[in-house]
Amino acid sequence: VYFEDARALDSIPALCQMLEQHHGVKPIVLIDEYDNPINNAFNKDTYDDVMGFLREFYSLVLKSNPYMSFAVVTGVMQIAKESIFSGLNNLAVDNIFSNNFDERYGFTEPEVKDLCTYYGHPEKFEEAKEWYDGYRFGDADIYNPWSLLMYIRNKFKPGTYWASTSGNDILETFLDGLDDRTYGDLVALGNGKTVFKQIYPSVSMRDVGGDLDAVYSIMAVAGYLNAVPEGDDIYSLSIPNREMYKVFYENVTRPLKMDVRIAMRKFLDSMERKDVQGVEDALFTLFADSFPATLLKDEGDYQLILATIALGRGGRYDVGIEREAGNGRADIIMRRNSPAYPNIVVELKKSRSDDPEDLEKMAEEGLRQIRTREYYRSLKGKTYLYGVSLQNKKAKVLFEEMDL
Predict the structure, then answer these.
(1) Contact status, residue 251 vs residue 168, Cβ threshold 8 Å
(2) Which 3-state string (H, E, C) describes the chain?
(3) Which residues touch 298 (CB under 8 Å, ≥6 apart)?
(4) Can you give the pTM of this predicted structure?
(5) Tens digit of each residue's pLDDT (9 = 90 or more) over 254-276
(6) pLDDT at 89 over 60
(7) I need a surface site. Which of 1, 203, 378, 399 has the fewest CB within 10 A?
(8) What is the pLDDT of residues 188-227, one digit of tens each?
């Protein structure tokens, strides 16, 4: 049934009455993706019109409809404070924190093993786990069902299948409104760490732009983050799997110009290949094209930018900034997760002089600090040390290799 405008909504109870007369039982009303129109209207001038239409629609269908047996309404987010269900006081709500249907939301681990075996590739289970596991619904550990099925359908080729089924407006709002605290949270999440936040299953879309903490609730119920209760409405939040790591990184870098994104890849590639000149060139391109000097006031500003770029290695490294190491705190440590790659330790220095000799001395000081304070003490295997001196957009890089 297509409703051209709100006046046509009056026909809904009559339609239900016709179905009851024909079949002899009151119909069941199923409403899927009830929150999708709200999400699509988010931050648009059509928001109030959409909310007005939905308010009248749900009132007629669910409140003023005596010909309905019962209704099931499904969606991703539990919308609050919007009054679209005004007057309805008999709603039973289940969400990702409920226990009633926890394992019904996706595949359990035994089911995933059975699927991989049934389709002839039991050896693919670990890859499926890396890409699509990581969710906690109620008391059940769950794999993303859509992504897993697409993974199998595409001959076990991993990809960001679920992320492409809908827009990322909420995540983009989060990224657009970053302050120092939330930027640090983003880096921590991207590095595989957990952050602890107050989470409410019921969220208001109007809070998203003004209250950054409200976005964590939306990101948890929408599947961007896994949320595990710790008590008193506090949840430990983490990126659940490799699919979502890629979504995070792609959304961080998507607003940047293509040549800057190329420079970001070149920076990481050059560090792994111990290409010092390549690192210097990439740093100049990055800072000259994307970041005004007013945003590069001290070493901490450079730290956050470079650590965020390191998220692009998606699981290849455990990236830490200002991490306790040896006899102090290292600026950036990229601890490898596979022996195929080197560990990387970076110490940054900001030079106040335009003198090239001073830039070199500061880079030497960075390299010396790594050695004397033994920032590499807990690392094993091939390890690359970089002393980096920065003066606005200029960079001087010195390199040393160790086998630990």
Answers:
(1) yes
(2) CCCCCHHHHHHHHHHHHHHHHHHCCCCEEEECCCCHHHHHHCCCCCHHHHHHHHHHHHHHHHHCCCCCCEEEECCCCEECCCCCCCCCCCCCCCCCCCCCCHHHHCECHHHHHHHHHHCCCHHHHHHHHHHHCCEEECCEEEECHHHHHHHHHCCCCCCCCHHHHCCCHHHHHHHHCCCHHHHHHHHHHHCCCCEEEECCCEECHHHCCCCHHHHHHHHHHCCCCEEEEEECCEEEEECCCHHHHHHHHHHHHCCCCHHHHHHHHHHHHHHHCCCHHHHHHHHHHHHHHHCCHHHCCCHHHHHHHHHHHHHHHCCCEEEEEEEEECCEEEEEEEEECCCCCCEEEEEEEECCCCCHHHHHHHHHHHHHHHHHCCCCCCCCCEEEEEEEEEECCEEEEEEEEEEC
(3) 350
(4) 0.64
(5) 555 556 667 778 888 999 999 99
(6) yes
(7) 1
(8) 776 677 889 888 777 666 655 556 667 777 778 778 888 8
Q: What is the pLDDT of residue 294?
A: 45
Q: What is the pLDDT of residues 222-254, one digit of tens each?
A: 788 888 888 888 899 988 988 888 777 666 555
